[in-house]
Amino acid sequence: MSERLPYLFHQYFNKTATPQERDELMQLINEPGSETEVYGLMEEVFKSHQFEEDPFPAGARERMLDMALAGYAKADSDNNIVPIKKRSNALIYAAAAIAVLAISFGLYQYRLRKNDEALAANKAHQDVKPGGNKAILTLANGAKIELNDAQNGKLGQQGNTSVVKLANGSLAYVPGGSTTGAPMINTMSTPRGGQYQLQLPDGTAVMLNSESSISYPTAFTGKARNVTVTGEAYFEVAKNKKMPFIVSYGSQKVEVLGTHFDIRAYQEQPGKTTLLEGSVKISNGNEKQILVPGQQAVFNANSKKFDIKTVDTEDIVAWKNGLFLFDNTDLDQVMLELSRWYDIDVVYKGPKPTLNFTGEVKKSNNLSKAFKILESTGGVKFTIEGKTVTVEKK
């Protein structure tokens, strides 16, 4: 047999054969005496691909080719194979060609399916799911409650106040009568990859971002409602003209009577207070400022004064609405935001890309999808390995 048959066979199997080559292959397979070489080519193709399992039952490939080449089959009661009559050589070898190519195509499709499954499994393994509602509640006696695992309903009693996990997953404090004795202090903290909602005893709503905390009394008494935060928190303060609401973070204090505002107080950056509604008084030592809606205050450590600017408040609180909103945001800040939400470690390979990003990414996305969106801007590539992400210039 000519060396042409192996060449044409592999051309067809690899889907690179021209129409003329396919016709030539049919003619060669139709020639008498081609059976042995065809068998060998089939085995070579099959063995050259390391399948985890044979896609055909034991002996099926041989039986299929035997039937096509010989034009008959023995009865097989187990497989319900019915004998067929002998046919002309032309039909026999045409059937052989069809059988061989069908089997080859089956193997090819099987190989593709296995490769796709392996790639999909590897991609799923090398991905990170988004964060969610996770927080730890520390009671006045030091006891800790994992809120994401806790059942809905009453979680405990703090003085005359009941601690309740609501049906929507948030935490609430329900006063049960007059308060006596020293106030009991609770702390809610969120880990990386976590956020949580809280309703304080006065009805004030709080939402904590990742890696944040808030400490508060289980009942507000005295002349002010005092809480302390780290990280980032959004407040919708219940109005009470007789008892101002005061948030402390670092050396700063924010005082309100009833309003909506956001405090960002992560250690690695200067604290920021952004007002959405109402008015607030912000202070740092003797320095004081009044904010109006749409303004953001940042304390300047050099001048010892507040720098005030007007901002888009929707961008500031996008995190609580399920979005990352980037507005010419540098790569370091983008990766810092993502590392908190996805609980990942970030390393840079080679020179750090100098890039800024503008756009939005849903916090509900898996990490790979978030990176795909960022990579579409060009200039950067992300590689996920477990909980470590490598960033490099594209």
From TrEMBL:
InterPro entries given in the database record: FecR, FecR_C, Ferrdict_sens_TM
Entry-linked Gene3D superfamilies: 2.60.120.1440, 3.55.50.30
Gene Ontology MF, one: sigma factor antagonist activity
Keywords linked to the UniProt accession: Membrane, Transmembrane, Transmembrane helix
Superkingdom of origin: Bacteria
Domain FecR protein residues, every copy: 187-281
Transmembrane domains' residue ranges: 90-110
Positions of the Protein FecR C-terminal domain: 324-391
Residue ranges of coiled coil: none
This protein's name: FecR family protein
